[in-house]
Amino acid sequence: MSNPPPIRFSAISDYHRAAGLPKPAHPLVSVVRMETVRVPIAEAPFSLVSDFYWISMKKMPHIKFRYGQQTGDFDDGVLFFMSPGQLFGIESAEHAGDFRKPEGWMILIHPDFLWNTPLAKNIRQYEFFSYSVNEALHLSEKEEAMLTAIVNQIEQEYNSPIDRFSQSVIIAQLELLSTYSERFYQRQFITRKKAGHELLTRLEDYLDTYFKSGNTTGKPS
User: Fold this and answer.
1) How far, in Å, are 78, 126, 130, 219 from residue 56 at the CA level?
2) Could you tell me if 64 and 84 are in contact, meaning their C-beta atoms sit under 8 angstroms apart?
3) DSSP string across 106-147
4) What angle separates helix 141-158 from helix 166-212, to the nearest 10 degrees?
5) Global pTM value
6) DSSP string for 145-212
7) What pLDDT, on a 0 to 100 scale, did the predictor assign at position 197?
8) Closest CA to 133 of 86, 173, 75
């Protein structure tokens, strides 16, 4: 049986409605605490596409996702980014009860909120907003706490009365969040590269010792 077509969200309010959330405090930006999501938007498997950006840090046990060519899970804290028009899917939910008890947060940002700001251009330069990134960003407890502190500031401004400074304050915090995310992605890349290099070095040392031993008639033991 073929999978159902993707669920399309044109406005942030559409997602709020599907997730059983109150109307967003701002039509073009929203901060969502995962524990406040009342219902899953559909039964797994399902996919969705939206007309706005998503930045999320989720812990959702037993949930498997697909984004572009990568698959993964939310068993540990995973930082996730999605751009307008990109396809995201939930492939399986092993325990339906766990799906209703997620942890973490999401920031939803409509492109119109970024209009005429430096971030409108710079956001396209972050690779983690594209399919080209082939792995999710796994955060340490310290990194998770740092980003959550920034999200707390965004949420405080989001829940304050809108004035002519509201957009600038939130944009500044989003830029800081993106900069830290870029740093953490580079850290993860360096860590992966170092681990791969160390494995290759050990293999080279092993083969060097083997060939120097003169015992090259059989297989390495």
Assistant:
1) 8, 15, 15, 49
2) no
3) EEEE-HHHHTTSHHHHHGGG-GGGSTT--S-EEPPHHHHHHH
4) 170
5) 0.75
6) HHHHHHHHHHHHHHTSPP-TTHHHHHHHHHHHHHHHHHHHHHHHHHHHHHHHHHHHHHHHHHHHHHHH
7) 39
8) 86
Kindly list the distances between the CA atom of residue 8 and the CA atoms of 52, 73, 200, in Å, as whole numbers in the listed order.
Answer: 11, 22, 45
Mean pLDDT, contiguous 10-residue spans, the chain (221 residues): 79 94 94 86 76 85 60 65 84 53 88 94 82 66 92 96 94 95 80 43 49 55 52
| pLDDT of 44 | 64
21 token code pair: 């959330």
Task: Find where tokens 């060939």 sit.
Answer: 211
Query: Do the Cβ atoms of 42 and 50 come closer than 8 Å?
Result: no
82, HSE (Cβ side, Cα atoms, 13 Å): 24
Q: Which pLDDT score is estimated for 68?
A: 57
Burial (CB < 10 A; 0-12, 13-18, 19+), residue 161, is exposed
68 near 89, Cβ under 8 Å? no
Consecutive H or E run containing 8 = strand 7-9
CA triple 20-29-143, angle to 5 deg? 95
CA dihedral 170, 172, 177, 182 (to 10 degrees): 140
Among positive and negative, which fits the CA dihedral 155, 113, 13, 164?
A: positive
**C-alpha 6: how far from chain center:** 19
d(CA 26, CA 85): 21
